[in-house]
Amino acid sequence: MKNSDVAKIVPGASKILSKWNCTDKDKSILLGYGSEEEFLVMLSNPEGHTFSEEQILRMSYIFNIYRSLNTLFNLPENSDDWVNKPNKAPIFKGQSALDTMKKGELKDLASVSNYLHYFLYI
Predict the structure, then answer these.
(1) Count of H helices and E strands in the chain?
(2) Tens of pLDDT along 65-89?
(3) Residue 17: partners with Cβ closer than 8 Å, 6 or more residues away
(4) Phi and psi dihedrals of 22, rounded to 5?
(5) Distance of CA 15 to the CA centre of its chain
(6) Is the pTM of this model over 0.90?
(7) In the 8-state DSSP scheme, what is residue 21?
(8) 12-22 pLDDT tens trace
(9) CB burial class (10 A; 0-12, 13-18, 19+) of residue 5?
(10) Region for 49 from its dihedrals, namely left if φ exceeds 0, alpha if ψ lies in -120 to 50, beta otherwise
(11) In Å, how far are 42, 46, 79, 113, 115 from 66, measured between CA atoms?
């Protein structure tokens, strides 16, 4: 994927994270930036930023999670609330999906995405 194409989807990823009540610090963690400041610099000029493969993959997971939630829930507010509610599923250990994802590891985003995909295809 070309960098210029990735730059076009950054605002959408940021908007999804805002719907999930993420702070800029949360967004920097979820999107794989070393600091909130680095994230904000990128957000102010995505076209001038070079995205890593991991950052692209993180955005892909966020879009997939968002799409899955909107498929599973009839009301958008329910899908947006789900990520913030404590969850008893074993992978969440009583935490919310967002808390799980905010651990900062790529595998945490992958786990949430795979968990939701399971329910889409059962």
Answers:
(1) 7, 0
(2) 999 999 999 888 899 999 999 999 9
(3) 26, 27, 30, 31, 62
(4) -85, 140
(5) 10
(6) yes
(7) T
(8) 999 999 999 99
(9) exposed
(10) beta
(11) 22, 21, 8, 9, 13
Query: What token pair was written down for 83?
Result: 């990520």
Amino acid at the residue 62? I
Q: Which residue has the tokens 């999107």?
A: 31
Look up residue 35 and give its two tokens.
Answer: 């600091």
**Which tokens in the block code for residue 50?**
């070079």
pLDDT tens, position by position, 6-53? 999 999 999 999 999 999 999 999 999 999 999 999 999 999 999 999
Record the tokens describing residue 77, joined without a space: 């507010």
Whether 122 shows a pLDDT value over 80: the answer reads: no
Amino acid at the residue 34: G
Give the phi and the psi of residue 96 in degrees, each rounded to 5.
-80, 165
pLDDT tens-place string over residues 92-102: 999 999 999 99
d(CA 58, CA 11): 14
